[in-house]
Amino acid sequence: MRPVAVIGAGKTPFGAFPDRDLRSLAVEAGQKCLRNANATPAQIQSFYLGNFSGPAFVGQNHLAPYVSTALGIEDVPATRIEAACASSGSAFYHAWTEVAAGIQDVVMVVGVEKMTSQTTARTSEILAEAGDCSGEMKAGNTFASLFAMIARRHMYEFGTKKEHLASVAVKNHANGALNPDAHMRKAITLEQAMNGKPIADPLNIYDCSLISDGAAAVILAPLERAREFTDKPVRVLGIAQASDRVALDEKPDITTFAAVRRAGEKAYGMAGLGPDDIQFAELHDCFTIAEIIASEDLGFCRRGQGGPYVFEGCTLRTGPRPVNTTGGLKAKGHPVGATGVSQICDLMKQIRGEAGELQIPRHEVGLAENLGGSGGTCVVTILGAA
Amino acid sequence: MRSGAVYTETVIYSAPETFAKEAPYQSAIVTLDGGGRVTGRILGDRVSIDDRVVEVEQRNGVPYFTKA
User: In a mutagenesis test of the A interface, which of B6, B39, B42 is the best target, namely the one with the most A β-carbons within 10 Å?
Assistant: First the structure.
């Protein structure tokens, strides 16, 4: 296995873009990424697309060659990966395997989702297809209600409070307010965050990530070739994908994500690093409770202590280990198929020192955690300066 | 009919399209006395974690429980 670098990154802003279609978003991100990597379409040897549900959201299937050829990338394998909200994290993982194994040198990964052309009720239904549709979802659950049940149990077992959940939203909104590409650039108070419109008890609207349109792209290459393309390559120090039962009622314990723990342990092992070495992270805050549990599962704090950990300011942009400096899924936005690659782009910006107002002082080693569904898939990636 | 204890629960206000007319409604994961867990709906009084519940009916394969 050879060392792999990320040599370029590009993103669209995230938001609601009624005049844009799925392909134009993906192409914009891809072209920005090619320019950022100083690469041409002819240099791309394999193409991966992360997308959750183009067919249901916009009625388009066969998306990988649909996007790759529009980017001028011809005659290469073009493969779509679906793993719920971890679709493009998983696409990135598979692209990495191809480069690490020496099968291809230069591989592009695009993540895209176009969600806002549907109503919220219909969007909930499409997203629910990432759960167990023969059980939990047939009973009328949504992803918000699954995570509400996770939050309820976490509160019961560990004393986690609504203030703790709300502090995740306050922190991520404060960061998103400074991110020019964020879907929602609005700071909120703890009082606002605790009193939003109820969605599924104990979660309110401020506990939930946004329904967004957007795309993100990166290009991978062997580390030894990275400087042919860029002066600022970023190295993949560790990466792993893990899986678990899809249905919540089949997991022995819903206050922890087994796939996050396993992917984290493997990624740490590959990197030869531990939680204390991670200077900053992008964690998958699809709901506020998910960031709290991820911070426990990845060893940033003790089990059950994720609530106080964020409430006390440990993960503020100015804190000892900033989490979701871009606003996270909560404020940056969550076009589900784009999120995994978007997190990689966000780590790259920090590591390269290009994060503008959001730049943090210790930015050499960052971790991204991309969760699918209620924990059926997880991809953990650790990046560092090359 | 099956019985058990509430493992976790939520009241859903923002429902998917198919169930929008029924909102708000309570969903729960129940640890069955016979072993295993199942996700169902709660009829009548709201329940909390550890409350005892009994299954009163099934609709479309979904178990409906009520407080014991």
Answer: B39
